[in-house]
TrEMBL record:
The lineage of its organism: Bacteria, Pseudomonadati, Pseudomonadota, Alphaproteobacteria, Hyphomicrobiales. It holds the Pfam family Phage_portal_2. It comes from the Bacteria. GO terms for biological process: virion assembly. This is Lambda family phage portal protein. GO terms for molecular function: structural molecule activity. InterPro entries: Phage_lambda_portal (IPR006429).
Length: 540
């Protein structure tokens, strides 16, 4: 095969042909379909989540707090989140494992009821649970959820009053809790000291101390508190590796601002509609027309009568305009009769309306805000105009796992930390009896303090259909009484004990009770006829 390059003869003076442009080769990769370079113009980098949080958290919290204070949408959404997550309170459901302490099931159940009753009495007494003696534990949990929405985290500090300090306030317990606003923990970072956003960590990354800033005598002073006395709750799965949180509203702050701007612009347009302008459309000449007529008279001055004709026209139109000025128009005096010249037309001008596209765009912004906050669009906007039973049921079913997750990640850990400190003190001081005493508690601490926290029940669009669904699950063995009571925010053992007491009272007074499965048209409580068994004679 020859390697000599072939020669081609080209006529002198002719243009050479341009080399063909090679076709773009197809590729298989991410982010390849961007001919408009929209993604190329968007600057983005990858880095540790702790740096993102550290740089943006203070500004995001300030904006979020301002919007909550000044936006009815976000303030109402925060109330909805608190109601869904906590309701009136998170109810303690003690679940200790006392098998190692030789407790029978009956003894364990009685011990749990005692603990739950004592806890509820203590948690609803501000003087006993709050260091300042102002808030109950349920009120603290409300504030914890609100702090979580605005700051992305919440803090509490555990204190203990000695018996001498208790006598000064006439209280019995020493365990006390104080809520601390997250901005009271400055995000100071000095990595060479192990200080990361206000928290000292050891070599393994475990928190050791919190450097709070508190107000004393009109001055802000630093207060370093041991980590064992600090309750710090946040959604650590949101920004893994970050010691601090960021506002839940951070991704929608721009959307909230756009919604406010849209509302302000629409209001301004609506106000402009009340302002009108009035004009008169007239065939009479304007000032420019008068000057043109005068110029025409000067140009035709050589013709007989041209200048006089132009002056006559000017005089006539001047008198008509003068007459209109003298008569005038009035839009405020209903008794005045307005006069218009021949060929004149009176017109009113108003501002244009916002247009039909306002409502869909506004609802789209509201949907984005509701999606991030974790509530349905209908509950956010209180707009059920397009909702159906199926859509409401599906919306609640998709949102409720977010509610329970927020309860288990934020509210319940805060309540659990308080409960553990209270229970330890109550056992140590003998108010709550435990076999083996305080030493047994320290040995089996994790088993003794285990508990669940029940919040409000999941809302339903049709209570009857939901009750039938629960009945079907129980009959098919797909659920238990504990599961169904938990969905309603109740303790099934307490419910069963209450039903037992009510049945006893009703039977003593010979009143039919409504409990139990319905049997026949007369119900389960109807007297059943005595039916003798049928005897079958055996064949020989």
């Amino acid at each position: 095969m020859s390697d000599v390059k072939p020669r081609m003869r080209v006529k002198a003076g002719t243009a050479t042909m341009a080399a063909p442009v090679p076709a773009a080769r197809p590729t298989a990769k991410y982010l390849r379909n961007d001919p408009s370079r929209i993604l190329a113009m968007r600057q983005a980098v990858t880095r540790d989540a702790r740096i993102d949080v550290w740089e943006a958290a203070e500004r995001a919290s300030a904006l979020a707090l301002d919007f909550v204070h000044n936006s009815g949408w976000l303030a109402g959404a925060a109330d909805q989140v608190v109601s869904d997550t906590i309701g009136t309170e998170l109810k303690l459901n003690a679940r200790p494992d006392l098998t190692g302490l030789r407790y029978s099931e009956e003894e364990r159940s009685a011990w749990c009821r005692l603990v739950e009753a004592e806890w509820r009495r203590w948690a609803w007494t501000p003087a006993e649970c709050d260091l300042a003696g102002k808030s109950t534990v349920p009120e603290m949990l409300d504030a914890v959820v609100r702090y979580h929405l605005v700051y992305g985290e919440a803090f509490g500090v555990l204190d203990f009053l000695t018996p001498l300090g208790r006598r000064a306030y006439g209280i019995q317990t020493g365990t006390k809790v104080s809520l601390v606003a997250p901005h009271r923990l400055p995000r100071t970072t000095r990595e060479y000291e192990g200080l990361d956003q206000g928290i000292y960590h050891d070599a393994r990354g475990r928190p050791q101390q919190y450097r709070f800033r508190r107000r004393e005598g009109g001055l802000d002073v630093d207060a370093v508190i041991a980590a064992r006395d600090v309750i710090h709750v946040m959604d650590r799965g949101d920004n893994p590796g970050s010691p601090r949180g960021i506002s839940v509203f951070a991704p929608i702050l721009k959307v909230v601002a756009q919604s406010d701007q849209l509302a302000d612009a629409t209001l301004a347009t609506a106000l402009l509609q009340t302002i009108f302008a009035a004009t008169i459309k007239s065939p009479e000449p304007s000032e420019i027309a008068f000057q043109a007529i005068q110029t025409l008279g000067d140009d035709l001055s050589g013709y007989d009568g041209a200048k006089e004709t132009a002056q006559d026209l000017i005089d006539v139109w001047g008198m008509r305009i003068g007459a209109l000025k003298d008569k005038g128009l009035s839009m405020s005096n209903p008794a005045q009769v307005n006069h218009l010249g021949p060929g004149e037309e009176f017109k009113m001008h108003t501002a244009a309306t916002p247009g039909s596209q306002y409502l869909p765009f506004s609802q789209n912004l509201q949907r984005e805000m509701a999606r991030r906050i974790g509530i349905t669009f209908e509950s956010f906007a209180l707009d059920y105009s397009d909702a159906t039973y199926s859509s409401v049921r599906m919306g609640i079913s998709s949102i409720w796992p977010i509610v329970t997750r927020r309860r288990e990640r934020i509210a319940a850990p805060f309540a659990q930390a308080i409960y553990e400190a209270w229970l330890e003190e109550s056992i140590a001081e003998g108010r709550i009896p435990l076999k083996g005493g305080y030493q047994a508690f320290k040995t089996h601490r994790q088993k003794v303090v285990w508990a669940e926290w029940q919040g409000p029940a999941q809302p339903t669009a049709d209570d009857q259909k939901s009750a039938r669904a629960a009945q079907t699950r129980l009959e098919l063995g797909l659920s238990s009484l504990s599961d169904e009571a938990g969905l309603l925010g109740r303790d099934w053992e307490e419910t069963a004990a209450q039903i037992e007491r009510e049945i006893t009272v009703l039977d003593r007074r010979k009143i039919p009770h409504p409990f139990g499965r319905t049997m026949g048209g007369a119900g389960a409580n109807a007297p059943q006829p005595d039916i003798e068994p049928v005897r079958v004679k055996k064949s020989t």
